[in-house]
């Protein structure tokens, strides 16, 4: 198999409950976690309350270029994209960038499907709902929103692979660079918290009514969150022409389908094993070089059982953690937010503790990082498992003679 | 209609088990795995159906595990808790 | 990288399967049905192209389909038909990837889920309905029921969904990630979508009419639904009668001229939307041989996949099917290249070029 990697990451942006920027998020991850709270942007009639990780910023200070009326999911994506562009030093070179082949590949849970609850309630009552709500939805396809903001005309792709969308979007975007389709790709994920998905996860009985506890014996499920993260992926030619150092590299990407069940992971983790194996093989990675694994670790009984079993088998002794205890499960954004965390942790040479974990589960063969740790090795893996049995794994590496 | 009969009808209709009729479900046959062959997604759907049709709430799947064995156990669980 | 088309499956307003598509193309019959749209003034009829998935029961039993909604059924049927057409229904699928392109995703299922808690309260939200509303539902159902264990991808990019998703198919095959890709596109009609049409276009949507795709200044669209699937492999596996996908280009037509190969027959995806029509009018090059088949399948974002199916069929039959722009009877195909062009309402252009042989 010919490897499409490595591909340089020259900028990153991230917004989620812990903070509005990559810096704020990383600071927060190494302090104590802020507990999730009841949702403020919508109300619900559940008999039990389920806390969430909301982003406090209302994002209304953003003034999108062209069409200004877009959804919160679109705004989150734009907010992170601006940070990433500026971090990559491209805010000074926007004109040059417009002359290049710049693609956008963004993961989210809903591309352009009509799921506007207010509109639908009015429609059901036989009222005449304002079509502005539908136009807003049509104008808020996340990849298109970013392309419009920076006036880009390369390939645009909104990946809707449920909870692995962010991871897949980065892997796919990296392959566009390597295949020579693009000079630069803005890749990542975005998702706002919404009443519809909130009800969905509660109905599946995989939401915890207390702060989530990934890999803990008492884990009961996930807390939902929201946010976005964008990475600037760049070709060697483009990066060298503007003398830009890579922060890190995408070394490998593996993806697979369990072909087992709609909502439950394969009990032996069949698909996850394949995705990890592929990411490692593509990057020519030896397991000794892996500093840590960012696990999907949602805190649901099934997910954490499958994931810890696979990690124990394939990567024994490699430290791992879930950051969902800080961010909640941000669905289509999760893989991208965790990609940013993984790269930042590689740069810092340490990982935060797996928030929410205190009691080892005798049924799980391994336990996550229960305290902040110094990590060695130049490589990190980041995993995502999604609805429908989809698995995706990225391998990131920092400069160890690669740059 | 008895609770068992209601349950069978609800299960067949709401879980779209078109190929069998409510009468064909045996009272003590396992609902999950071998037997009726329902799965984990059906389990959470049944939780919603019990609340909708009988006003009986199951707070966690662990709590419902025993009750979910068969029509007999499920009917007993409902009858004990059904609001009167 | 060239992708060979090994099998094609299609279901839509024209019927089920390639024979039905072929027959509709030859006769030029437009098989619209009447749907009823709820409006503030009361119910109102509207024409639409609808797909019938009853043939799926030939491939799968009722038990396997009990939780599968119309959206995923169209996709599943397309998938089975494409694999059957390729003669590869019984093959091992551990080195196959699944890619789905959809403009609107599972629209009906999303609202069915909303119905459960709007009617019964948040606490009675249905988990089964929620699962069906997840955007990768079709890819998930297909991978599970056909045991496809390679990578999966669902793309939601409105009218650019098909060309955008094809990029991934091409790269997966080029990188050797897979040996084949089951590539499909699906979009669904539902009552609320009809309502949007009524609100946006009023009588232009609801009056009995035919699509006139070349009347670029007029709103003549009729909503459609359906699925088109392709089994794709690397071209070096041997010649395919359906030809190969040679190139996919996505650009903005207000930024650079459309890169249409000189010797190509151009299938345009103009589907009666005035907002898109203005771009075709302005940017179509002169002296290019045109055809348009949207009146066979209707207006829908995944339309380029139907055009790809028609292009593949044209190569296989060696003929150009009649369309408004190339009037007259069927005639022999005198070109080796067909380019399918779709322009979105905001001026993005997707070009998919297919060539004869490999």
Percent of residues in beta strands of chain A: 15-25%
- Label the overall shape of chain B: globular
What do we call the CATH topology of chain A? Peroxisomal Thiolase, Chain A, domain 1
Largest sheet composition of chain A: 10 strands, mixed
Assembly category: heterotrimer
Q: Give the overall shape of chain A, derived from the CA principal axes.
A: globular
Fraction in helix of chain B: 40-55%
Q: What integer value in Å does the Rg of chain B equal?
A: 12 Å
Which structural class best describes the helix and strand composition of chain B?
Answer: mainly alpha
Any idea of the CATH topology of chain B?
A: Non-ribosomal Peptide Synthetase Peptidyl Carrier Protein, Chain A
Largest chain-chain contact?
A-C, 71 and 70 residues
Strand elements of chain B, count: 0
What percentage of residues of chain A falls in helices of 4 or more residues?
Answer: 25-40%
Q: Largest sheet of chain B, if any?
A: none
Please report the total strand number of chain A as a whole number.
12
For the termini of chain B, the CA-CA separation is 16 Å
Beta-strand proportion of chain B: under 5%
Structural category of chain A:
alpha/beta
**In the CATH hierarchy, what is the class of chain B?**
Mainly Alpha
Q: What are the SSEs and their pairings?
A:
The complex is a heterotrimer of chains A (about 400), B (about 80) and C (about 350).
Chain A: E1 7-16, H1 22-29, H2 72-87, H3 94-98, E2 102-107, H4 117-124, H5 132-138, H6 142-149, E3 156-159, H7 165-178, E4 184-191, H8 195-203, E5 227-234, H9 236-241, E6 248-257, H10 270-282, E7 290-294, H11 301-314, E8 320-321, H12 324-327, H13 334-348, E9 350-351, E10 373-374, E11 379-386, E12 390-397
Parallel strand pairs in A: 2-3, 2-4, 7-8, 7-11
Antiparallel strand pairs in A: 1-5, 1-6, 4-5, 6-12, 9-10, 11-12
Helix pairs in contact in A: 2-6, 7-13
Chain B: H1 3-14, H2 40-54, H3 61-64, H4 71-81
Helix pairs in contact in B: 1-4
Chain C: E1 3-12, E2 15-16, H1 18-27, E3 33-39, E4 42-48, H2 70-85, E5 96-101, H3 107-120, H4 127-133, H5 137-145, E6 152-155, H6 161-175, E7 180-187, H7 191-201, H8 203-206, E8 226-234, E9 244-252, E10 265-268, H9 274-283, E11 290-291, H10 294-297, H11 303-317, E12 319-320, E13 331-332, E14 337-343, E15 348-355
Parallel strand pairs in C: 5-6, 5-7, 10-11, 10-14
Antiparallel strand pairs in C: 1-2, 1-8, 1-9, 3-4, 7-8, 9-15, 12-13, 14-15
Helix pairs in contact in C: 2-5, 3-4
């Amino acid at each position: 198999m010919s490897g499409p990697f490595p591909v340089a990451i020259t900028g990153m942006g991230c917004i989620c409950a812990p903070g509005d920027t990559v810096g704020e998020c990383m600071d927060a991850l190494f302090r104590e976690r802020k507990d999730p709270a009841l949702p403020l942007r919508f109300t619900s009639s559940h008999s039990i309350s389920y806390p969430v990780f909301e982003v406090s910023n209302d994002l209304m200070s953003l003034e999108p270029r062209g069409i200004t009326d877009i959804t919160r999911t679109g705004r989150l994506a734009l907010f992170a994209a601006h940070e990433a562009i500026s971090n990559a030093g491209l805010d000074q070179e926007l004109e040059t960038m417009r002359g290049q082949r710049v693609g956008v590949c963004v993961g989210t849970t809903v591309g352009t499907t009509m799921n506007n609850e207010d509109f639908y309630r009015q429609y059901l009552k036989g009222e005449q709902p304002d079509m502005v709500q539908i136009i807003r939805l049509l104008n808020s396809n996340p990849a298109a929103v970013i392309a419009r903001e920076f006036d880009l005309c390369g390939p645009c792709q909104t990946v809707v692979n449920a909870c692995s969308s962010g991871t897949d979007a980065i892997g796919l975007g990296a392959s566009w660079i390597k295949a020579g389709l693009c000079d630069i790709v803005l890749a990542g994920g975005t998702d706002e918290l919404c009443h519809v998905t909130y009800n969905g996860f509660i109905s599946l009985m995989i939401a915890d009514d207390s702060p989530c506890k990934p890999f803990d014996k008492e884990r009961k499920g996930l807390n939902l969150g929201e946010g976005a993260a964008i990475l600037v992926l760049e070709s060697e030619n483009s990066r060298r022409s503007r003398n830009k150092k890579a922060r890190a590299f995408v070394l490998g990407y593996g993806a697979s389908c369990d072909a087992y069940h709609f909502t439950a992971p394969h009990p032996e983790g069949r698909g996850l094993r394949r995705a990890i194996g592929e990411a490692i093989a593509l990057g020519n990675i030896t397991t000794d070089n892996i500093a840590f694994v960012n696990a999907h670790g949602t805190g649901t009984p099934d997910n954490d059982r499958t994931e810890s079993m696979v990690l124990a088998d394939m990567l024994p002794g490699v430290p791992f953690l879930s950051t969902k205890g800080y961010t909640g499960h941000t669905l289509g954004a999760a893989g991208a937010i965790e990609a940013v965390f993984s790269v930042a942790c590689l740069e810092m040479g340490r990982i935060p503790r797996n928030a929410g974990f205190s009691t080892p589960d005798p049924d799980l063969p391994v336990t996550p990082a229960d305290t902040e740790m110094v990590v060695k090795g130049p490589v990190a893996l980041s995993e995502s498992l999604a609805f429908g049995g989809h698995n995706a794994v990225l391998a990131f590496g920092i400069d160890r003679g690669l740059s | 209609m008895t609770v068992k009969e209601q349950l069978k009808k609800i299960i067949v209709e709401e879980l779209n088990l078109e190929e069998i009729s409510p009468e064909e479900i045996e009272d003590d046959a396992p609902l999950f795995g071998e037997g009726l062959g329902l799965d984990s997604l059906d389990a959470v759907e049944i939780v919603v159906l019990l609340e909708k049709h009988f006003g009986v709430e199951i707070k966690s799947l662990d709590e419902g595990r025993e009750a979910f064995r068969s029509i007999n156990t499920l009917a007993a669980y409902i009858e004990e808790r059904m609001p009167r | 990288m060239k992708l060979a088309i090994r099998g094609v499956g299609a279901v839509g307003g024209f019927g089920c399967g390639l024979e039905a598509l072929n027959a509709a193309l030859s006769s030029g019959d437009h098989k619209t049905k009447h749907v009823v749209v709820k409006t503030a003034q009361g119910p109102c009829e509207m024409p639409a192209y609808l797909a019938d998935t009853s043939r799926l029961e030939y491939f799968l039993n009722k038990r396997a389909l009990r939780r599968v909604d119309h959206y995923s059924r169209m996709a599943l049927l397309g998938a089975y038909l494409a694999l059957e057409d390729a003669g590869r229904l019984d093959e091992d699928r551990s080195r196959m990837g699944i890619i789905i392109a959809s403009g609107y995703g599972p629209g009906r299922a999303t609202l069915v889920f909303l119905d459960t808690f709007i009617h019964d309260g948040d606490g009675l939200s249905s988990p089964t309905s929620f699962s069906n509303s997840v955007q990768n539902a079709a890819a998930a159902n297909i991978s599970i029921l056909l045991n496809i264990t390679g990578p999966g991808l669902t793309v939601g990019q409105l009218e650019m969904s098909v060309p955008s998703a094809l990029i991934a198919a091409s790269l997966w095959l080029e990188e050797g990630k897979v040996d084949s890709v089951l590539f499909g596109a699906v979009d669904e009609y539902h009552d609320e979508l009809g309502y949007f049409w009524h609100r946006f276009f009023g009588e232009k949507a609801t009056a009995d009419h035919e699509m006139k795709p070349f009347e670029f200044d007029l709103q003549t669209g009729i909503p459609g639904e359906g699925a088109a699937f392709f089994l794709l492999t690397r071209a070096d596996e041997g010649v395919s009668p359906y030809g190969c996908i040679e190139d996919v280009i996505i650009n903005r037509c207000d930024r650079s001229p459309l890169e249409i190969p000189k010797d190509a027959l151009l299938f345009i995806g103009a589907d009666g939307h005035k907002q898109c029509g203005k771009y075709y009018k302005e940017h179509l090059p002169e002296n290019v041989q045109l055809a348009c088949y949207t009146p066979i399948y209707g207006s829908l974002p995944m339309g380029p996949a139907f055009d790809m199916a028609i292009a593949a069929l044209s190569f296989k039959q060696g003929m150009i099917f009649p369309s408004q722009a190339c009037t007259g009877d069927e005639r022999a195909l005198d070109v080796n290249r067909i380019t399918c062009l779709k322009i979105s309402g905001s001026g993005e252009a997707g070009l998919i070029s297919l060539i004869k042989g490999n």
